């Protein structure tokens, strides 16, 4: 499910950073002389240094880059939200903040984490992308007692943060739904979101209690976690 073409930022990063792991490393022809010593590229200092440079770039770019994926607000009757689940809680995020819903990828931890929310980096089409925990950012209970079925597959959301795309793992994606703005307005005025972080309101959808996330506050928190 591709929402926009903002992954060009990821490809630019891949060109700027020498992705030797894709050429001569574990994902390449395995001719790197250091591979026998480190077994896997993620154990190599070159890989760690590339990940560190990527995170430094987020800090530098946030000062001179406007938020990716903006829209001109017009008088519309509906707003598109991506519905997804973390643990036992369902959440909704405006699709204008979304780049893509991707299959779950391996997350490689970093030797020096910058924040509790930073899980590490993931390889997205050959480029390293920072991976964050929404459970940590939103202060959710990490326990997942929902019975899994064959159709429920964990996914990764690629989100357009200010300094470049980031990925966040989620337990389930329901899809994109158009919600009547009158329902959203009523939810934002209900006061039910007062105790929930980065939340604009709570509404009922498909028999579920759904937290509608404030994308501006959430993206700001994402940026802070990377700098």
UniProtKB/TrEMBL annotation:
Q: Which PROSITE patterns match?
A: CHEW
State the InterPro entries in the record.
Answer: CheW, CheW-like_dom_sf, CheW-lke_dom
GO biological process terms held by the UniProt record: chemotaxis; signal transduction
Q: Which SUPFAM superfamilies match?
A: CheW-like
GO terms under cellular component: cytosol
Where, subcellularly, is it found?
A: Cytoplasm
Q: CheW-like domain spans which residues?
A: 78-224
> What keywords sit in the KW lines?
Cytoplasm
What protein name does the entry list? Chemotaxis protein CheW
Specify the species: Pseudomonas frederiksbergensis
């Amino acid at each position: 499910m591709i929402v926009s073409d903002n992954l060009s930022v990821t490809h630019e990063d891949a060109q700027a950073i020498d992705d030797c792991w894709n050429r001569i490393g574990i994902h390449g022809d395995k001719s790197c002389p250091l591979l026998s010593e480190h077994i896997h590229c993620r154990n190599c200092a070159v890989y760690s240094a590339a990940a560190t440079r990527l995170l430094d770039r987020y800090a530098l770019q946030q000062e001179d880059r406007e938020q990716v994926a903006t829209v001109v607000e017009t008088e519309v009757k509906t707003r598109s939200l991506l519905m997804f689940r973390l643990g036992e809680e369902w959440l909704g995020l405006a699709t204008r903040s979304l780049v893509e819903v991707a299959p779950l990828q391996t997350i490689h931890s970093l030797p020096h984490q910058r924040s509790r929310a930073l899980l590490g980096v993931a390889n997205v089409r050959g480029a390293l992308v920072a991976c964050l925990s929404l459970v940590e950012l939103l202060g959710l209970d990490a326990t997942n007692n929902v019975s899994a079925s064959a159709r429920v597959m964990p996914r990764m959301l690629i989100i357009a943060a200010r300094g470049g795309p980031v990925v966040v793992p989620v337990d389930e994606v329901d899809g994109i739904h158009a919600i009547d703005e009158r329902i959203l307005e009523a939810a934002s005025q209900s006061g039910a979101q007062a105790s929930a972080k980065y939340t604009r309101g709570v509404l009922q959808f498909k028999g579920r209690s759904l937290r509608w996330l404030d994308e501006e506050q959430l993206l700001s928190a994402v940026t802070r976690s990377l700098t």
